[in-house]
Design goal:
By secondary structure, the protein is mainly α. It is built from 6 helices and no strands. The chain has a domain of 81 residues: Serine Threonine Protein Phosphatase 5, Tetratricopeptide repeat, CATH 1.25.40. The chain is 56% helix and 0% strand.
Length: 132
């Protein structure tokens, strides 16, 4: 069985105990990966951002900006979902929440057994957890 105290006692030279404040950034994408972190107490929020997310935001926004072209086609509503997912990739959870809410409002009367709706609700629920 893994004993964290025993492990920390044996890791040897270079061990440093660091305390971080709530919401303090510990590591960012692109930083040198030359450290092992062991969380003794508390929790860490992991967020992955992507330039592709930023690009996708622009593409989904184009669809929404031209709603007259898609009319009542499902692609219009699904663009809100795509926009929410893209904002998550881009690291903007507040805007993602709004996009998911827009999608769910448009589909409020839809059959609850539709897989894409079930998935969107699950993603939205997970997103709300990250915003707390």
């Amino acid at each position: 069985m893994f004993d964290p105290k025993d492990f920390l006692a044996k890791v040897g030279v270079g061990k440093t105990v660091v305390e971080f404040q709530k919401n303090q950034k510990v590591f960012s994408q692109g930083d040198a990966a030359d450290t092992v972190f062991y969380i003794q107490d508390g929790k860490v929020k992991l967020t992955v951002t992507s330039e592709q997310g930023k690009e996708a935001v622009g593409e989904f926004q184009k669809i929404l900006d031209h709603a007259g072209v898609v009319g009542n086609e499902p692609i219009g509503a699904l663009a809100h979902l795509g926009l929410g997912r893209a904002y998550v990739l881009a690291g903007d959870n507040a805007k993602a929440k709004t996009a998911y809410e827009d999608f769910l409002a448009l589909w409020k009367d839809a059959d609850p057994d539709i897989p894409i709706l079930q998935q969107a609700k699950a993603e939205y629920s997970q997103l709300q957890t990250h915003l707390q």
